[in-house]
Amino acid sequence: MENIKFGNYLTDLRKENGLTQRYVAYELQVTDKAVSKWENGKSKPNIDELKKLADLYDVSINDLIDNIEDTKDVKISKIVLTGGPCAGKTTALSWIDKYFRDRGYTVLFVPETATELIPNGVAPWVCKSNYDFQNAVATLQKTKEKVFEEVAKGMDSEKILIVCDRGLLDGKAYMTNHEFKNLLKNMATNEVKERDSYDAVFHLVTAAKGKEDFYTLDNNNARTETKEQARVLDDKIISAWTGHPHFRIIDNSTEFEEKLERLLKEIASFLGEPEPFEIERKYVIYYPNIKELENMPNCTKVEIAQTYLKSIDDVERRVRARGIDGDYMYYLTEKREISDLTRVEVEKRLTQDEYLKLLMDADNKLRTIHKTRYCLSEANQYFEIDIYPEWDRQAIMEVELSSEDTKVEIPPFIKVAREVTYNEKYRNHNMAKEMPKQLIKKKN
Question: What is the pTM of this model?
């Protein structure tokens, strides 16, 4: 957890004494980066460093210790609520606000940027080009999110939920791939970094898919799409976010109120209210057609390196590098089993330095698992197909579910050999010990 308040306290002390971070680092014989991390709340000085800080700032060691102990850890989660036109986002935002405030959260909402701009005269049809409009949306989106994140760090709250009404990747649905790549290049960023900067993404399916009688343009003056256009756009938005490590699609298989209840359940589970459950089924499948997958707009390729750490109190710990073409994000995951289907899973994003440091605690009895993952959005379910270099006849497919009795709709182009949800040897932790032998005979 980040100790933001204590970091702010150290910053104030340094500034009151007219000192720079470099000078403090020199006096304490630490790096500038160490002092910066203390003041950003990302780490804390040890007892010897606290003593030196007390002398340098002319305060008592007890004052510093008391400020650490009195400071509550702040948990800040940033999620995206997205969806097709007329999907129920506006009502969903009000439900999210009440539901999580009642559970002790401070809830902050980053308004939908395009809907702010269009009624105020900045629209695609008045800009020089659609690209110029999308660039304006992305630039303002990034600025707003940064403001909300900085404000959240200074708040007196243990649990803060930042809800972005659409995120930066939504813009991809309104541009060509070439335009989107240019946009990211001009912003000096990349798709992996921007997509995975959000902790989770929740997509509400447009009413034009399955609830056509409820589709309307009346409740949003920035909406112009016909039902067919809404369906196409819904698919494009799903494709834009496919590849995110925690992406959930909330369809129209129930009445609207139950749809929103399912959304709240998914968000609560992700946040760990009461605990962060993960429910999934796992299958051995026949080796898929890789070219077919890579040509599908609703499928995204990700490279993963997964290393297991030494367990603590029977909690399975692993670090993961996840990305593509040299652009990676890093994660620490801790898991505890509840049942064959259900696990409590807590995940934390890491910096590259934190990731490399944790690798020093790797369990040397287990090998690092390398795999290519194809994230596939199909029939409002989210599949992850893992290709291992050791296998050329079979692969593993997982699908995360909202409940243990949710029916899995296997994509028609995927051929299942058998379900292995309950087979211990196909758990990643056991596969790090020894890869199971291929069960499928190679085609002649």
Answer: 0.80
